């Protein structure tokens, strides 16, 4: 029991240490109704949209853990086009829709950012960053779910690659 308690304390300490080295990340979503594709397929639109925004905001914040603690990264999302395209299906119960993934339906996102140090000095910023994940033509639904089970896998990969290149993180 003492070993389990010590392990719990070690994990808690590691989590607090990790939080101490993370930059603060603020994410704002502007004019979401104008985004190219944040469309729900088999869900209520508002619930789907909120879940997508929450998951991507959380990922931005996780990426902030790679940046110095006294820094701040402010992201303003201005457009999003999720992986895949919406196609109708027809069956016994009428028509419905599915999101089809192929090599032509890659994710894109547009955002502005400001990156500041602990004194508020702007270290990097841009009014418009446009990211595209053209992938290699092998990102099908089968291998995306086989590797992660995350419906936003390609969008998150795109964000991770940008942070790695922009801030020279590993």
Give a summary of the structure in a few sentences.
InterPro entries: DUF3016. By secondary structure, the chain is of the alpha+beta class.
Descriptive account of the structure:
Residues 1-22 form the signal peptide. Keywords: Signal. This is DUF3016 domain-containing protein. The structure is a single chain. The chain has one domain (23-167). It has helices spanning 2-20, 45-63, 141-147, 153-167; strands spanning 24-29, 72-81, 85-91, 94-100, 108-116, 122-132. Helix 2 packs parallel to helix 4 (153-167). The chain is built from four helices and six strands; from the N terminus they run αβαβββββαα. The protein is α+β, with helices and mostly antiparallel strands and 170 residues long. The longest helix has 19 residues, at 2-20. 18% of the residues are buried. Strands 1-2-5-6 form a four-stranded mixed sheet, covered by helices on one side.
List keywords for this structure.
170 residues, four-stranded mixed β-sheet, two-stranded antiparallel ribbon, 35% helix, disordered N terminus
Poorly predicted regions: 1-19, 142-146
Largest sheet report: 4 strands, mixed
Rg on CA atoms, Å: 19 Å
- Helix vs. strand class: alpha+beta
Strand order of the largest sheet: 1-2-5-6
Number of strands: 6
- What is the tally of helical segments? 4
Total domains: 1
Could you state the order of secondary-structure elements as H and E?
HEHEEEEEHH
Q: What is the strand content?
A: 25-35%
Distance between the ends: 37 Å
Percent helix: 25-40%
Protein name: DUF3016 domain-containing protein
Organism: Pseudidiomarina atlantica
Signal peptide: 1-22
InterPro entries: DUF3016
């Amino acid at each position: 029991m003492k070993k389990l308690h010590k392990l719990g304390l070690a994990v808690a300490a590691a989590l607090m240490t990790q939080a101490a080295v993370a930059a603060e990340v603020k994410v704002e979503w502007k004019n979401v109704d104008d985004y190219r594709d944040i469309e729900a397929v088999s869900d209520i639109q508002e619930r789907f949209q909120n879940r997508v925004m929450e998951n991507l905001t959380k990922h931005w914040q996780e990426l902030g853990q790679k940046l110095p603690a006294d820094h701040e990264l402010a992201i303003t999302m201005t457009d999003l086009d999720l992986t895949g395209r919406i196609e109708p299906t027809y069956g016994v119960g009428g028509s419905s829709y599915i999101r089809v993934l192929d090599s032509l339906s890659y994710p894109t996102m547009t955002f502005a950012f400001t990156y500041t140090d602990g004194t508020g000095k702007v270290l990097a910023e841009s009014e418009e960053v446009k990211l595209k994940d053209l992938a290699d033509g092998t990102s099908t639904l089968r291998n995306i779910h086989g590797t992660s089970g995350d419906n936003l896998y390609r969008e998150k990969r795109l964000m991770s690659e940008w942070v790695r290149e922009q801030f020279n993180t590993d």
